[in-house]
Amino acid sequence: MKEYFYHINPAIYKAEPGLQTIFRTTQLSPYRNLYCMIPILSLCFGLGLGLPLLWLAGWHLQHSVGLFWAIGGAIAGAAVGSLFFILFLGVLGTVVSIARGLMASTVVGVASGIMNSILFCVILGISQSLPWLNVETQPGVIASFALSFGLAIGIMVGVTIGGVAGGIVGLVLGSTGSLIVGMVFSVLIVALSAIDIAAEHTGIVFGFVFGLVAIATGGAAVSLVKGIFSSVIISAAVGVAVGFSSTPAVGLLTGAIAISCSLRLPFYIIELVWAGCCPQKCNLAAWDELLVIYLPGSRQQLLQQIQQDFDHGVIQLCYIACNPFQRWVAQSALKHYLIHHPSPLHELHGLLTHPASHAYVFAPLSHHGWLHIPAINYVLLGELHDRWVNCTTDPSSRLFEHLIYQISRCLRNNSQTPLTEWARILFQLQLAEISQQKLSLRQIAEIQAIAAQLDSYPGGAEICQMFDVIHIFLKGDRLAPLAETVSHTDLRFLRKKDALNPPALEILHQLQTIAIDIYTSEQTSRVNQQAALLRTTNTLNLLEEKLDAHVITPERILLRQVIHHWQHLVCIASGEIGNAQLIQPIPNPYVIGNPVTGSLFVGREDIMRRLEELWLPSQQVPSVVLYGQRRMGKSSILHNLEAILGDRAVIVDFNLQVMGIVNNTHELLYALAIEMYDRLPPPLTVTFQEPQLSQFMQNNPYQSFLRFLKHLDSVRAGRRFIITVDEFELLEQLIEANVVEQRLITFWRGLIQTYPWFIMAFAGLHTLDEMRQDYWCPLFSSVTAIPVGPLSFSAVQQLI
């Protein structure tokens, strides 16, 4: 059901709680079909099961039956289920989360609708009367039963959700539930007394239905363990309440039946018989996700399934691992399989890369759950080295699950081998990636020591060599010596045909190719060195994208650390090459004047051709930075861009010497929006509203500018907008003066990456690495640097 809700509309499933989101669900046909299905399903079951039971009851009691009253009773019962559905969806969907409201309300609505529809169909069909709210006969019993039922609902929901929200929701649902149950029970108790139904029979039916509904609601709306514990406790409380409102014997009977149904004993008996008669048909431990008690033979059956068909066996293994009561079965079978397999490393790698192991161990129902509920492969790695993994999102569920783990610990396979130590390393690597931790060289050395113990396994030598190479790739703190070391490293093991992890080895091979390119360029001119560093930057960015797509988590974190380390060294090396040029401008005795255009603009054909090559492609194109001394012609290049790009691009002049006279970030982004609006072709300004200063001053300026870009994207008619930012060093002065926020730089970087048609062309005195503050690094790691030097001799002749 969670999968159904999620695939209808993931945005609604993850949305914040609120009535507006609930009303949004009514606009989608799958949700409307579900809402209509609840009363229809309740009515169909009520008539389909109620009428045969009505006939049997009438025959047993030798009492006439009324078909009209039976149909009316089934409709009334279905209406009660719909009331509970609306109640739970409205309260939980408004206070807790939409997903939890949908889950709990659907289960409660269908279960209570079917239960009441059958009860009303049988009882009213026999009594043939409608004692509506006739409480004169037994008002104390009705009040006690209604209050006990409402109290049970309130406590169960409150414990299930937890915290202040749980108390509020439990109070609302409990009080409202008491009113509904009181109204329903007032009808039933008079009808029951009229046809002389024994109280014990009522207690049996009520305990049976309440126990099943409680565990189904708890298991669907929260975690299975918390649902079991809360439903057992509340079932006992309901038994006491029923005993108080009736007799102790009836209460004890009701509570015992409710607790047994909370543990799903009726289904367990059926499954036990089925497993004994047809042991090879299917693994019921994987089929029944709410199974509490161990089914004999399920561990051996799972082991055989993995041995016979690894792909199918892993799917069954993942289903069982999601159930904390049966997780020890998955751990024991998996560990036994890996220990006795001739190639356990290959099988473990196959498990970690299997799509089924990437699913959540428990489908999230809240924003906190999306962030903290682990994947199944992460849980299995923890189980392999005998470590409990928290799969919950609240303290009470954590306590219950840890208790179950401790109880079942003696049933697990606790043998220790080099493979379990390796599982511990993979678990720590995955944990480091989740928490975004950087591994130290000491930790990597520890990984090398554990990997060396795998040499006796097939594929173990490859793992050991791979981590040795990664350690080498991370040791250097200077690019040139590191490139020399890496270029001479023996990586012949990368070319093995039966490699354990080909994507990771391919990335190592490409990193060595980068190192060879850098090492070779060290013996050439600065121009060639800069070109090699530019190629390295582009290749490292592509490798990181490939890393996320093709390499699994344990190796991914180390390879990403290598890539980031090399990117940092490339940034330093680029700065060292740039420092060979003069950082400060040389005083120039010649007054050149304003930027030139037309025939006076000569000698920059190479730069203009370079810009045209960069910006002609129709896909993602880079932003650029032009840097050089004053009076080199940077501003003239920016002013002549329109001549080479024509109407394919809109050039927006955003000179910070003029536009930088602002008081805050709000005014700066508003000024940029106005400049872009003013550069629109006249036909577009008719349909496109001019941005208002109040929109930027009264609201978040970043969100206001994003909204402006989204509207502009809809009318720009394929044109690109190139924002030329001259004298961009002035922005650093504004940041240091606390006029403009530092995060503006990161915001611009995000715009460049999100909108391919939004391009920025910076011009200034400094190279990227000469900027004094670190906040420039995120922006300038995404742009292409183009130096602007003095004119050539032939260009000077032409100009003169």
UniProtKB/TrEMBL annotation:
This protein's superkingdom? Bacteria
Transmembrane region positions?
Answer: 34-55, 67-92, 104-126, 146-172, 179-198, 204-225, 232-259
Q: Which InterPro entries match?
A: P-loop_NTPase
UniProt-listed SUPFAM superfamilies: P-loop containing nucleoside triphosphate hydrolases
| This protein's UniProt keywords | Membrane, Transmembrane, Transmembrane helix
Q: Which Gene3D superfamilies match?
A: P-loop containing nucleotide triphosphate hydrolases (3.40.50.300)
Name this polypeptide is given: ATP-binding protein
Natural source organism: Thermoleptolyngbya sichuanensis A183
